[in-house]
Amino acid sequence: MNQNTPPSYTSERRASTVGQMLSNSNAQQTQTQLLDDALAVVRSHAKNMRRCLDAGFTMDGFRHASLMLATLRTSALTPRNYYELYMAIFDQLSAYLAPHLYDGHINGQHTLSDLYELVQYAGNIVPRLYLMATVGAVYMRVAAKSKIPLSENVLPPPVKEILNDLLEMARGVQHPTRGLFFRYYLSSMTRDYMPNHLVDGPLGTLSTSVHFILQNFIEMNKLWVRLQYIGHSSERDKREIERKELKVIVGSGLVRLSQLEGLEVDLYRTSVLPSLLGEIVSCKDLIAQEYLMDIIIQVFPEDFHFRTLDLLLAATMQLTRAATVKQTVLGLVERFIAYADRTREDAAETRRLSIGEIDTSKSLPTVYDGIPEEVPLFPLFWEQITSLAQTRTEFTIYDNASLLVSLQTLCLKVYPNKLEYIDKILGFAKERVLLAKRDELKNRKTESTILKLLLAPIETYSDNPLKLLKFPSSKNSSTFSHNSLIEPSIRSNSSSFCGNFTDLLRLLPHTPRRKVAYTVAKSVVSVGASNVSQKFSVDSCDSVEALFGELCSVLVTDCLDGNVCGAIIPSATRKFSAITTSDEEEMIDDEIGLLKLDWDDIIEEQEFIAKLIHLVRSPSGHPDDNLELLAVLRQHLGTGGDLRIRFTLPPFLHRCFATVHDYLSLDDFKLEDISERLLSLYQFINETVKALSHAKYVYTDSDDTYFDIPPRFGSGLQIPGLASLSLFLAAAKCADSSGHEEPAYEFVVEAFTCYEESAALDSKTQVSALIIFIGALSAMHGFGYRNYETLVARIAGYAGRLLRKTDQARMLLAVAVLFWEQEKEERVLAPVGRKVDTINTNKTKTVEKIGYNELFGDAIDAGFTKSKKDDMEKSYRNGPKVLECLQKALALANAVLDPAVRFELFVLTLERYVLFYEMKIDTIHIRHLNFLVDLIKSEIAKFDASANIASAKMSFGSSIFSGQPAIGSASGNHEAPRHVSRHFESILGHLRFLKNEEVSSYEEADLGIGHASHQFRNSWNELNI
Fold it and tell me: What is the end-to-end Cα distance of the chain in Å, rounded?
């Protein structure tokens, strides 16, 4: 409370509030007392009435009924309490008096014509009218149920005269509440016996019933409207509440009219609806107009609305400006939508039950989900809604958008193939948004409504979301007839490949645009994954432009109002939110329409974009067409920023690699032409991978590009340098497979550069990178002698500069394979377009003596001579270098302090020696194997010496030296690793097998059974195992 408020004013205000509360309490108590007293009178006279009627005293029963009905003369009760009193009396009249009068007339105890005259002598008009309505309703019941044909001597019941008489007599009650309830009673008592005869006469016709119900409804509406002006003006709000409580009574008249048997469309259009609409428009009451228009829409059949839609929409234009015309139009549209859904379900069920029973020879009328084609549904609604939006200045952008959403839903349900209808709706929405005030667009309700306009077509066309390109307002651009990487293209700029859809989308803030983009991406990926047989694809340049440049652009590139983390917070709001609590900050974000994303959301969005890239392919499958699409796509992906390209460029590059293989499978192109295209493509790939390698991968809150980054931002992604390294090597493999040595060499050199420039690579990452290098280079066979030697030497140098000696040893063992290149395969393409054959340039040399020093470090380069053949036609095989790598690895392993690791490295080295010896490398001899076996056994002996004797016997004694297959387990930290021991046993078993096989072959050769090579005779036999 303001401290400057005078105490006297505060006291008066409190006293006024308390007085009002006491007044309301007293009024409530008074109403309850009045109702209880009236109900007590009703119960008393109802009991006496039933007693008199059971005794046969009809006139006495009328007298008690009249006294009971006299309680309805009160004006002190509220409409709610008056309704309770009315229902108590109605139950007595309908359940006892009316059946007694009907039975008495049938049994001849009295005649209804006499009773109808007698009840008119009641002293008060309210009891008189109720009794007249009761007797008249019974009279109509007799006429409706009479099956005796009328003759000239028997007069029919004057039903038509009774109805007209009751209408005239009802005018005598002009009090709104009493008049409403009496007319409601009159409608309720006569509803089951309304005439519908075809021939006019005393019994009446359908027109008589229509006239009676219409006039009764019109008078009820006038009384209902008049209730608003009873009492003091200060009680206006109270009167509105009371009127809303009575609206069901007024609407019952329209319900009776809709239930009238025999009512057809022609009569409804020419007589009923014009009278109803005339009364609704002329009453000029807000509550009445809104409610009654809604009742008309809800209670009458849809077929009536189809034939009278022009009248309904014309009447809405004549309603008061205060009336919410939007609700009327929305109610009508939603009724048609529900009808279309129901009709579609019924038709599907009918087809399911009657397959084979439908006569297709008969022509059926064209319908759109139950709506006849001749009904201009959309044009009528379109004219009405656009007229309302242009003439009703009080309509906000939210009101206009709500109307357009309903109309769009109707079109998508009824006319899904009429793309021009959806396009017109989106175009009109774009115009209204451009004319709207800026503050209106910041409203969350308005934003969500416009968002529905954009999401609904995407959900409807989920089988092919790219139908948006077929909108009449979209730019029709022909597909390129050339390759943009080879021949420069000239095309006009366009920002509306999806027409009005894109134009409206660009007018929205960042958050709703992001929602639309996410929905589009998810829909396209889903249909691409489900339509395996149809192979859905983004198959044209326009589709790529529309999808990545318009619909999903907010997920592909940074915008002025947002980036990959979400919408950018305005600077003023950013400063204010820095001093608020978390709850207040969330409230601020809701007000300005921001959506905070976490790292998982960002990953999900970017993964959808990555999946979209794999759907970009031409319908012909020709690599030229695919390359054209990729060139357009690259322009959009390149603007994604440092984080996005780490998601999008790798799948894009893999699509480029697939295009390379597509070129290599072509049969109808000259090799020179293919080579030129591939060179251009390799240059394109090189530029793309370089862009990825320069991406930033450390993000902080102080970075203006990504302000207020979520937790774990950027985690889980591969470092750009390492990712680029892998992609460069993949590109090198493609170039090697096509016979382009120079591009392949440059790609590997670029991979080396990425390795050297990535200062953040730890030891494990460096080892992983070297493994990738070794695997990639061992799979390439297109390098010349000198280039291959340079690359292998560089990898060996990297391996020797690792931090940990164990890593150096392992990598040198792996690198040794590269110094003995496999036989070259025939390459598909050469730089000049010719195929290249390969020859075997295997050279051998012998080493006479080898010892401990030579095994651990003295490189043997003597005797190695390089072939004078052309570099392109020889495999690189350098036996001394192989031996040098093995020597260095063994020396490094011997320097390791951890005995378990040293033991493991010795076993791995032995495995490599065995491999190279089987490959018949001239620098590897059986003495190397014997020495290593002895060395490893000595290591095992060291483990035995440190363990107890029992463990030593169980672990190694009976296994290694006796040939048993397993080593026992022993407790303690000095035991040799079990898996390494098993590995060593496997190697020994393999060597024994080779030794035994060689001995058998020699024995067979000596016996003349088989043949054996004497070049390596007694080689395996020299093994000391």
Answer: 101
